[in-house]
Design brief:
The complex is a heterodimer of chains A (379) and B (140).
Chain A: H1 2-19, H2 23-26, E1 28-41, E2 58-70, E3 73-84, E4 87-103, E5 106-114, H3 146-149, E6 150-161, E7 168-180, H4 188-192, E8 201-213, E9 219-228, E10 231-235, E11 238-242, E12 245-256, E13 259-269, E14 274-278, E15 282-284, E16 288-298, E17 303-314, E18 324-335, E19 340-350, E20 367-378
Antiparallel strand pairs in A: 1-2, 1-20, 2-3, 3-4, 4-5, 5-6, 6-7, 7-8, 8-9, 9-12, 10-11, 11-14, 12-13, 13-16, 14-15, 16-17, 17-18, 18-19, 19-20
Chain B: H1 2-23, E1 25-29, E2 37-38, H2 40-47, E3 61-65, H3 69-79, H4 83-95, E4 103-105, H5 108-117, E5 121-126, E6 135-139
Parallel strand pairs in B: 2-6, 3-4, 3-5
Antiparallel strand pairs in B: 1-5, 1-6
The chains are: A mainly beta (379), B alpha/beta (140).
Chain lengths: 379, 140
């Protein structure tokens, strides 16, 4: 399926190129960004990095090439280099898609496309687009985001303009195949133990999202639900099976003058059973539920400050720090120009259910502070 | 002393009027665009990538100024963002595969020229800039 879609995309690109009179006709654009981060934790290591010693292993670079041969057709491809701790360190195809917009009510993009669940999933890996060095990890876990970012398939989207007293309704419907590479952060424990996956993990995904732009200027309320079929992946000396699950989010965002307020509740609603066969065999059930509330304020044209409270609880875990994560965060971003920015952030974290396990075999302390710095450039 | 105050008020008045004349941005469109006016909401949607048509169904493609007082005035009056935030919003759409960056032109004359010769183009210029060959859309 992946090869078929990418092949179709390549064919579309080739056809367009052949028909083009000149590069100018194709309206080709090149954009990109790069960001370098630094992580320091007072206790525990985070994101598969040696963060308790201070770690600069947090690098990202993206190159985007797009073409708009006609006002309704857009073709684009994006490549990414990503390094976080011991994960990544490779150039991958971020997404590659052809987009045809019939009108504001109906458009379709296909290829490897961003999966539009939740408030931030489409932009969670686009560092220049938000104030935070790290989005709330309860919902947007950076170590396992490859499973969520994009799928091979299609997204159908559009906007219905309701009456002025009701607002506008954006919809997105998606379907296709998710592909999680063998070196993804969620396999870090298995890889570290020498039991990593032999092949990328693939499964079918379907979903939809609604964003209601209310008549109150700047206020959006939305919901999304993504369904993933059951699947399994062969491991060194065994296999791992996942039951079907749903990824449900309810969210809201309010932008007014210099303020941005947002919140989201998310549940990976399923029995969540993960069964590993081989030696040793195990069965793990999970039911993570997460939420966050965030606020940011633009102090000057260049300086923005913000804070959020992000919490996650796995209802299938026994009581203790492994069951939850509570993360109070304060953040600041300074834009030196429209191209260069600096982010500084402090996290006050209680609990260890997120992001710590992969890097540590040692006993984890229940509380830890995380300092995150990031400098980026985009064009 | 009285003459000095009168001269000062006169000078400040002229400067204020001159400032307003430069600051007022007008919205222009290709003559093929049917609409004669545009709502602030539709204008903001088009220039932030949320919509590609006006209320009457006219398909439009935004074109931007790279910089200048008309650009700043337009963003302040109709988009509610400064240049950095405005372009960050567009980059977010570009990097997430939802849109392509609109053309950004160096001068108001170039915007007029582009809008005049490209079907569906919609842009903005200072009120005092000559704009033959395009239509001016009233903003409701």
């Amino acid at each position: 399926m992946n090869r078929l879609l990418v092949g179709a995309l390549a064919l579309a690109l080739g056809t367009l190129s052949a028909k083009a009179q000149s590069l100018d006709d194709l309206n080709i654009q090149i954009h990109g960004y790069a960001a370098q981060g630094f992580l320091y934790t007072t206790h525990n290591n985070i994101f598969n990095a040696e963060s308790s010693d201070g770690s600069p292993a947090w690098t990202e670079a993206v190159l985007n090439v797009s073409s708009v041969p006609t006002p309704k057709l857009r073709v684009a491809v994006q490549a990414r280099y990503f390094l976080l701790g011991d994960s990544g360190n490779a150039i991958v195809l971020d997404w590659a898609a052809a987009d045809y917009k019939f009108n504001d009510r109906l458009g379709v993009r296909f290829g490897k496309v961003k999966t539009p669940w939740g408030l931030f999933n489409e932009t969670q890996d686009i560092d220049p687009s938000y104030i935070w060095a790290l989005l709330p990890q309860s919902v947007y876990d950076v170590t396992t985001r490859n499973a969520d970012l994009a799928h091979y398939g299609a997204v159908i989207y559009g906007t219905f303009k309701l009456s002025p007293s009701v607002g506008k309704l954006d919809y997105r419907v998606w379907g296709g195949e998710e592909v999680i590479p063998t070196d993804d952060g969620q396999f870090a424990d298995l890889n570290a133990a020498g039991n990593g996956p032999l092949n990328p993990f693939t499964y079918v995904t379907l979903g939809g999202a609604l964003h209601w732009r209310t008549p109150i200027a700047g206020l959006m309320i939305g919901a999304s639900d993504g369904h993933a079929n059951q699947g399994s992946v062969a491991l060194v000396g065994g296999s791992e099976s996942f039951t079907a699950w749903n990824n449900v989010s309810y969210f809201t965002k309010y932008e007014k003058d210099k303020w941005l307020l947002a919140g989201e509740w998310n549940r990976q609603a399923s029995p969540g059973t993960l069964i590993t066969t081989g030696s040793p065999s195990s069965s793990v059930s999970s039911d993570p539920r997460a939420w966050y509330l965030m606020a940011s304020y633009k102090i000057t044209g260049k300086l923005t400050a913000g804070a959020y409270d992000s919490q996650a609880v796995d209802h299938d875990q026994s009581l203790g720090p492994d069951r939850y994560t509570k993360d109070w965060t304060v953040s600041g971003r300074y834009d030196f120009s429209q191209f260069i920015y600096l982010k500084a952030e402090e996290h006050f974290i209680e609990g260890t259910s997120l992001s710590f396990k992969n890097a540590n075999n040692a006993v984890l302390l229940p509380n830890s502070n995380l300092t995150a710095l990031r400098i980026g450039v985009s064009f | 002393m009285k003459k000095h105050f009168i001269a000062l008020f006169f000078t400040l008045g002229v400067l204020a009027l001159a400032g307003n004349a430069h600051a007022q941005a007008i919205v222009i469109a290709n003559p093929g665009v049917k609409a004669a006016d545009v709502s602030k909401v539709d204008l903001k949607d088009v220039f932030t990538g949320s919509a590609t048509s006006l209320k009457d169904g006219s398909q439009v493609t935004p074109v931007l100024l790279k910089t200048g007082s008309a650009h700043d005035e337009f963003l302040s009056a109709y988009i509610g963002k400064n240049d950095t935030a405005f372009r960050a919003g567009w980059r977010s759409l570009v990097f997430s595969g939802q849109a392509a960056m609109p053309k950004s032109l160096d001068s108001e004359a170039a915007v007029v020229e582009y809008v005049a010769h490209n079907a569906g183009a919609i842009g903005y210029i200072g009120k005092a800039t000559p704009h033959e060959g395009v239509k001016v859309l009233a903003v409701r």
